DNA sequence: TCTGGGGTCCTAGGACCC
DNA sequence: TCTGGGGTCCTAGGACCC
């Protein structure tokens, strides 16, 4: 049996954990650059505010109902997530951290709870509520896809108080009937439309199609697997997340600008800064990169015709994780695509073709590859920035020039209560200060 | 005025090989 | 008039996820 533990309205709930006055109020959290709405409280959802809505569009209705909006505070959400996952690791035999706010648990062999896994789910829910102060829902079933589905059912209903265990065929059948095919894990917009065209609208109907049909109409093996999972036959294994950070196969840092950039120099600064951030992520997972892409995007929503994005990809002569080297390559790529007079709204640096650092295939014709000295320099850079704060030491190219500002808006950010000494949670009592 | 960011997996089709 | 039959590898792009 698998469980899916999912924090409700995660970003909003993190903000509420430190600001109880937000309980019962419409609350939203915004994406980078205060652009879109990416998390909504139940009250905000009830106002008809949809996921991904531009903030400026939702703002009137939010203001009208005395709602609150916050810039995203990733330091806070990341730390709250670590606390949740830490708790789960203590109470479950195997945990797969699936995203910042959800995790799969493998419940195989939990004899002491057999017959009452729902009680186990409730214990987890209460534990997270007590220790991390976050609301969760727990879905339990024989496959990951059904656990997801159970979780979806409890999120929508008040009857189950956030925990549902599908431990009989009747329970499964009932749950499948509650869920639209479009809401099944792995069914996106395209597939949902295709299903609809074939008269399949509920998860129960989807669970009844033949394997051949699924292969043909739902994207080959993925579709066949999905249907089997709905039928209760586990095809997806749990991949336990150990203490090590997950190994990414690609690493990117991309951002929209507060105001569009046209001139080369500030764009170079931004791209260098993005390459710096991506290189830090790269070294954190002990990888080196072979393929580097830089892209620039113009305003997607303006009148200009597509394409809005141009990119350049370089195959590096040897894998590296050296920030200085990567900034040089990023500059080369940028020069290829930058066009004078264009106003760019967004840029990004993407690393692909990752391999373990130190195991690089050396280039036969060039004496390249990182020297031990450069590796030590990068390690020291990371150490200083970890100890004294991000951006303490860096490369001049990656600094904004005089009067330049490429960072996005973040006007409504709350303090990093749990990860920054300067922003620690303060409690005021009787006008005094604790 | 204002519209996010970072991933994964799979498939189709082209290039190339014998 | 007519134009083989398998393979492998790589890449671009689609679809999906949170």
UniProtKB/TrEMBL annotation:
Pfam families: DUF4113, IMS, IMS_C. Keywords: DNA damage, DNA repair, SOS mutagenesis, SOS response. The keyword Transferase does not apply. SUPFAM superfamilies: DNA/RNA polymerases (SSF56672), Lesion bypass DNA polymerase (Y-family), little finger domain (SSF100879). Residues 2-188 form the UmuC domain. Belongs to the DNA polymerase type-Y family. This is Y-family DNA polymerase.
